[in-house]
Amino acid sequence: MSSKGLSPGRLEAFSDGVIAVVITILVLELKAPKLDGVAGLREVLPTVFLYLLTFVQIGIYWVNHHYLVDDVETVNHGILWANLMFLFCLSLFPFATDWIGEKGLTPFTTAMYAGVSILPGTAYMALWRQIRAQCKVAPHSSWGKQIASVSLYLAAIPVAYYRPAASLTLIAIVAVMWLLPPKAGSEAE
148-168: b or e for each residue (b if 16 or more CB lie within 10 Å)? Predict the structure, then answer.
């Protein structure tokens, strides 16, 4: 490695490729219903909702990853490994989504999906800290928003054992939190 460090362009390109593969694997898990017409639509609606929720979560991470990597001037060893950890955690989403698709929305499958949702959230926080440690520009997202997100994912685990749909609602709230544009000046917390 040269004294000036590694370019963030390769990190971003590799990450884009991995995320594209994760989304492709996710969509390949969607299956046509066995029944025809409205009955078939009702049969696959929960799976399609979960696919949409997962796609949105991955998309939010992709967008925020671009903002984060855009702040990087050089990539160091810690950033490379934190990024790989983040990508690995994202790659678990198709597995968790398929499990619910196969077994149904049970307390266990929903708790497992919430647990899988925690992993990229905490890995993103580790990557964020690695990058923020070397950046001088104001961050694109707040530390508080990241902690709130992981906390809601964590809360979704026990809630899944009482009401699986409520657990998915908590996960969806995190997605809405990140989809809403930040208030001016509020992202540098």
Answer: ebbebbbebbebbeeebeebb
Question: Would you call 62 helix, strand, or coil by DSSP?
Answer: helix
- Interatomic CA distance for residues 51 and 130, integer angstroms: 31
pLDDT in tens, 11-43: 999 999 999 999 999 888 878 888 888 888 888
Report residue 39 as tokens.
């009955």
Q: Is 6 helix (H, G, I), strand (E, B) or coil?
A: strand
For 4-31, b where at least 16 C-beta lie within 10 A, e where not — what string?
eebebeebbeebeebbeebbeebeebee
Among residues 180, 110, 166, 118, which one has the least CA distance to residue 146? 118
Q: Which residue has the tokens 């930040």?
A: 182
Residue whose entry in the numeric block shows the structure tokens 């991995």: 18
| Extents of the domains making up the chain | 8-179
At 97-123, the pLDDT tens digits run 999 888 888 999 999 999 999 999 999
